[in-house]
Structures are given as structure tokens and as C-alpha cells.
Design goal:
The chain is 25% helix and 38% strand. It has 134 residues and is an alpha+beta fold. It has one domain (21-133). The strands form two sheets. A four-stranded mixed beta sheet has the order 4-1-8-7. The protein starts with a helix and ends with a strand. The relative contact order is 0.24.
């Protein structure tokens, strides 16, 4: 009986330890006047896209009457790899505009976008990128 419990414990630990979290992109703003985040890109920044180059705008603003101040996109499993997934995401983003109490931050250059995305990774295996006006 002890052997069976030990084997089940080892099996469950192996299953849980091997699970990769989903790559996640969070776009959010705090509830303060005139704070916003706007991401301009093509539909390839959206999960489950069909390779379309049609343009898309994601805007999260504190000026709306909505209680919702964020949007979350979930992609495939694993972390945001700095050699492949982050440059690919940056290539599909035209620009990011962040407005907060410090002013306006405009990221348009692909190198700046890639650097921003890399430095705003968090979570297990760098699986979460947060674009935030705070």
C-alpha cells in the first residue's frame, strides 16, 4: 500500500511539474483620469488568428464608464521566448501608446517594442507580458 501511494505521488508530481503555463498578454490601465493603453497592430497579435494582415486596435482607457480596465489574450503553451515569440509579436505590432501621469510613451520602433515586451515579462517561464498604464 505504501508503494502504491509513493508511485501515485511521484506520478502526480511529474504531471504537475511538467505543465507549461499558457503565454499570456495582458493590456491594462489603472482607474485614474486620463490613463490609457492603445496597441495598434494586425490580427496576428490576436490568438487563433488566420494569418490576416487586417489592422486591429486594442484600447483600454480609464475614461470609459466600464468597470473593465484590462484585456487578457492567451496563446499557446510555454514562456515568451526572446528569440522567436517576442520578436514575432513585436513584428505584428505597429505601435503601443501608453498615457499616464508621467506623460505619453510612444513605442513604434521594432527594437523598442521588442525591448519593452522583454522587460515586461513575468510569471513562470516568462509566460506573462503586461502592457500597463500605471
Amino acid at each position: 500500500m505504501i508503494v502504491i501511494k509513493f508511485l501515485i505521488t511521484i506520478f502526480l508530481f511529474g504531471i504537475l511539474a511538467s505543465c507549461d503555463p499558457a503565454r499570456t498578454l495582458v493590456i491594462r490601465t489603472v482607474d485614474k483620469p486620463n490613463f490609457s493603453v492603445t496597441v495598434y497592430g494586425n490580427k496576428n497579435i490576436l490568438p487563433d488568428n488566420n494569418g490576416s494582415t487586417e489592422k486591429v486596435v486594442v484600447k483600454i482607457s480609464s475614461e470609459t464608464n466600464s468597470e473593465k480596465r484590462d484585456t487578457t489574450f492567451r496563446y499557446g503553451l510555454g514562456g515568451w521566448d526572446k528569440k522567436y515569440q517576442i520578436p514575432e509579436l513585436a513584428a505584428n505590432i505597429d505601435s503601443i501608446i501608453i498615457v499616464n501621469s508621467s506623460g505619453t510613451l510612444l513605442l513604434k520602433n521594432k527594437k523598442e517594442l521588442t525591448s519593452y515586451l522583454l522587460t515586461h515579462r513575468s510569471g513562470q517561464s516568462g509566460c506573462v507580458i503586461t502592457i500597463e498604464a500605471k
